[in-house]
Design brief:
The complex is a heterodimer. By secondary structure, chain A is of the alpha/beta class. Chain A folds into four domains: 98 residues, Glutaredoxin (3-Layer(aba) Sandwich); 210 residues, NADH-ubiquinone oxidoreductase 51kDa subunit (Rossmann fold, 3-Layer(aba) Sandwich); 91 residues, Ubiquitin-like (UB roll) (Roll); 93 residues, NADH-ubiquinone oxidoreductase 51kDa subunit, iron-sulphur binding domain (de novo design (two linked rop proteins)). Chain A is 42% helix and 15% strand. In chain A, strands 2-1-3-4-5 form a five-stranded mixed sheet, covered by helices on one side. Chain A has a five-stranded mixed sheet with strand order 13-12-16-14-15. In chain A, helix 9 crosses helix 11. The longest helix of chain A is centred in the last third of the chain and has 18 residues. Chain A is globular, with a radius of gyration of 24 Å. Chain B has two domains: 57 residues, no CATH class; 79 residues, Glutaredoxin (3-Layer(aba) Sandwich). A four-stranded mixed sheet of chain B has the order 2-1-3-4, covered by helices on one side. Chain B is elongated and about 50 Å long. Helix content of chain B is 44%, strand content 11%. In chain B, helix 1 runs antiparallel to helix 2 and helix 1 packs parallel to helix 3. Classes of the chains: A alpha/beta, B alpha+beta. At the A-B interface, helix 1, helix 11, strand 8, strand 12 and strand 16 of A face helix 2, helix 4, helix 5 and strand 4 of B. The complex binds flavin mononucleotide, iron/sulfur cluster and FE2/S2 (inorganic) cluster. The site of FE2/S2 (inorganic) cluster (FES) has 11 residues of chain B, from helix 5.
Chain lengths: 517, 158
Amino acid sequence: MTRIFIPKDAAALAVGADKVAKTIAEIASERGKEVTLVRTGSRGMFFLEPLVEVETPAGRIAYGPVAPRDVASLFHADFLAGGAHPLRIGRPEEHPFLARQTRLTFARCGITDPLSLEDYAAHDGWRGLKRALAIGPAAIVTEVTQSGLRGRGGAGFPTGIKWKTVADTQADRKYVVCNADEGDSGTFADRMVMEGDPFMLIEGMTIAALAVGATKGFVYCRSEYPQAIRTFNAALAAARQAGFLGNAVAGAQHRFDIELRVGAGAYVCGEETALLDSLEGKRGIVRAKPPLPAHKGLFRRPTVVNNVLSFAAVPFILAQGAAAYANFGMGRSRGTMPIQIAGNVRHGGLFETAFGLTLGEIVDDIGGGTASGRPVRAVQCGGPLGAYFPPSLFDTPFDYEAFTARDGLVGHGGVVVFDDTVDMAEMARFAMEFCAIESCGKCTPCRIGAVRGKEVIERIMLGSNVEANITLLEDLCQTMKFGSLCALGGFVPYPVMSALRHYPEDFRPRAAAAAAE
Amino acid sequence: MPKTSDFDEGRAQAIIAEHLGLEGSLLPILHAFNEEFGYIDDAAVPHIAAALNLSRAEVHGVLTFYHDFRRAPGGRHTLKICRAEACQSRGSETVARRCLAKLGVGWHDTTPDGELTIEPVYCLGLCASGPAALLDGEPLGLLDEDKLAAAVEEVCEP
Ligand SMILES: Cc1cc2nc3c(=O)[nH]c(=O)nc-3n(C[C@H](O)[C@H](O)[C@H](O)COP(=O)(O)O)c2cc1C
Ligand code: SF4
Ligand code: FES
């Protein structure tokens, strides 16, 4: 009996993993080979998906990217024994893309069966929860604070401080809410956790609930992630069945359960207060702060709102201790960041590493440059509200403060690569258009400003009154930056202004075309 | 998979009753209607409002806020093509433009035979494998014009 591992991650399914699995099963039975197919999460090397791994006495041997038509030749090459084949990668953990990573949060992803409680327990699962139960709420908060963990959803707020605020607030009930709205283009780490290691998120949220005294949790997942929704719901049912959720969490005197809720296609519902309104069954409109969600959150009760990756980091921190996590990183950015390398890039995928690599190392060394083979021209970091970086800024280290110093955003860790065919005026126009489509409408600079901004850029692109319109656009960006209630309207000036600053030639097409003649 | 059946008051009441116990049940109810009927009929609004003790205007406000909720029947199949930055960097706009031109429809439109509705979506978390799309909820990656056409043909039997 040979075990074969094939991901069921959406990025593997999108390139045919199900068909590959089916073909392997068919040919195996034709040839009388006994195989067990295990569907895993993804290792995060999307350039090798579908990645097929075979369990051999020498460890797992990987082949990829495998198409259904390759399967017959894999059997011919005796891949069940790790045989030679042009698609043979060897041991996956020795592949340079994985060997260079520090996987604390993604240690199990792609290795275990995401819905197997036995696998989870065998690979260090629930150790953080056990320690949390042993040390109690105050000590949990201290551990998380000392780990230096900062919110991975975008704002980078210290997680321990948020938890302490909720723990210190008295109320008849409290909530733990996981922000799985992951709307930023170029990001997929939350999705990979929910599809590839969902019990880790359940464990992290449960530890948060113990720390603050919450009895109910919600995961708010975007509707664009049907595979994550399926897997996570199945994981919730399994965890409940095994007593990790319910009236006596892991056999202890604590009641906690989690419910998955699905968003409805509104980017702004990733903003935590809009998310809470949406969970309450309202329009996803951003709330003015104060009150903070930590004081008056869901149904006006004290609420912890954290990103998937923030909760997912917690089991490791509790199991191994704060120092084990804080030892990684630079400056005030402690621990590891699952960087998501995306867009027009050769080696796209999930790269978890300590903070501090330079942007150039990420894009050129790890990402291998563009997929098209053309020169890299721009990199957008931190999603649709993040700045565009030209290669001249590739010495910027991946660190919250270093990015901020260059008007950039680490955000949720997305890095989107563009080659030299990109039109940066079009990208600036798109940023404004996206803001106009997704604005919650509460404040004028964002609701009206984004529409005007898009129109002004369209006029610039047509070459009409270019310099005057650029001045107008800059003014508008200032107004949006300082007059918007949340970061949708407030940050959209960053991609726009960075495009203007670093790629002025793209906004002056006529002048450039004339000069070129 | 989106279905499109006519509004049915009995089913409507059953869907509402099924979700009424949830905290903040309006979105789950609207999702369930969208799933069951393929859209949310205006006739459902008063029933939902009455059950949740809300005004019709409040339900209408929520219904119209979210991109996912359809107010009129769509096609038998739904194709959501990603238009966000990472897919753009891999040529998604050209693929989308050609797909729409070939089918002779625009964004949010349904083909005249009622088979397919095409909607824009902003990121599917497949950003290293773009151009990406969801066809009846199934993810598609590394798309080009031909692959997308083939996938569409596979589900839309003439
Ligand atoms: C427009 C907008 C969209 C956001 N989208 C997300 C998101 O998809 N996921 C997320 O975790 N945080 C998102 N945030 C940040 C949240 O408001 C909030 O800071 C975060 O959920 C807190 O969790 P953390 O401290 O663990 O990062 C968004 C913020 C804004 C302004
Ligand atoms: S900035 Fe835009 S999205 Fe944010 S609160 Fe104002 S209108 Fe809403
Ligand atoms: S940008 Fe298209 S899937 Fe993320």
